[in-house]
TrEMBL record:
Organism: Mesobacillus selenatarsenatis (strain DSM 18680 / JCM 14380 / FERM P-15431 / SF-1)
Residues in ABC transporter domain copies: 4-245
Protein name: ABC transporter ATP-binding protein YvcR
InterPro entries cross-referenced by the UniProt entry: AAA+_ATPase, ABC_transporter-like_ATP-bd, MacB-like_ATP-bd, P-loop_NTPase
Family: Belongs to the ABC transporter superfamily.
Pfam families, A to Z: ABC_tran
GO cellular component, one term: membrane protein complex
Record GO terms (molecular function): ATP binding; ATP hydrolysis activity; transmembrane transporter activity
Keywords for the protein's UniProt record, in alphabetical order: ATP-binding, Nucleotide-binding, Transport
Length: 254
């Protein structure tokens, strides 16, 4: 079942044409099925973050359509989009974006508070996620007293708490060491395998991308190629590196 469908997306920054305009996306079409785990890779400046932002409704395309769960988000007003994002989507960022004045538990349940869920629902949910991601013992701590990897697992729990149709992640391992990156990617694997969540992430990190089912490569704002995992993660990692070598551009994190 297709969960995200993007058709002919164009994004121009700084006016639709003329001097000073940058065409960041140039006719991108992409479909993602429920339960897929997809990475977007490409050289610096190729349009990865722009694509993630347009697909997730953070930013509007200059032209083209995006639908998620059958709803055309490109036609929604700002308020409708904000509500749709809050109810249907989960976000994970490189910087974790946790609130320092709230405990881990409070950070996780914040989106449920906004949705006016019951205290019992919040409790059940937070303990289920904390158990899944092994952060039970730090629920009463504050973000500045836990490790980067624990902060990111808190952020992933928060992204999941309202059962989103899809999770979007921008460089989720960008601030983590290799061990914590592996733990976070295993968390994403768990939510795809055990909760059938759909995950789309942008990454420079070949190791992180090798956990995904599929990698889409973009260059100059266009889809260049895509590969699907067959065989082991190590074999997939080697194929990703081969494709990046063909793509050119900056050095990638391995
Ligand atoms: N707000 C903006 N205003 C103007 N141009 C922008 C803006 N954001 C991005 N761009 C330009 O659009 C193009 C694509 O940028 P984008 O950030 O999507 O690339 P990226 O592949 O995510 O890069 P990186 O890997 O370096 O983060 C680049 O040429 C960039 O300079």
């Amino acid at each position: 079942m297709v969960i995200l469908d993007a058709r002919n997306i164009v994004k121009v920054y700084g006016g639709s044409s003329g001097e000073g305009a940058t065409k960041a996306l140039d006719g991108v079409s992409l479909s993602i099925n429920k339960g897929e785990f997809v990475a977007i890779m490409g050289p610096s400046g190729s349009g990865k973050t722009t694509l993630l932002n347009v697909l997730s409704g953070i930013d509007q395309p200059t032209s083209g359509e995006v639908s998620i769960s059958g709803e055309e988000i490109s036609e929604m007003s700002g308020d409708q989009l904000a509500l749709f994002r809050r109810k249907q989507l989960g976000f994970v960022f490189q910087e974790f974006n946790l609130l320092d004045s709230l405990t881990v538990k409070e950070n996780i349940i914040l989106p449920m508070v906004l949705e006016k869920k019951t205290a019992a629902d919040m409790d059940t949910k937070v303990h289920g996620l904390a158990n899944l991601f092994e952060i039970d013992s730090i629920l009463d701590k504050y973000p500045y007293n836990i490790s980067g990897g624990q902060q990111q697992r808190t952020a992933v729990s928060r992204a999941l708490v309202n059962d989103p149709a899809m999770i979007f992640a921008d460089e989720p391992t960008g601030n983590l060491d290799s061990k914590s990156s592996a733990v976070i990617m295993e968390c994403f694997e768990k939510i795809v395998d055990e909760l059938s969540t759909t995950v789309l992430l942008v990454t420079h990190d070949v190791f992180a991308a090798s956990y995904c089912h599929k990698v889409v490569f973009i260059k100059d704002g266009m889809i260049y190629s895509s590969i699907v995992k067959k065989g082991s993660r190590k074999e997939f990692l080697n194929r990703i590196m081969d494709n990046l070598a063909v793509l050119g551009g900056r050095t990638y994190d391995i």
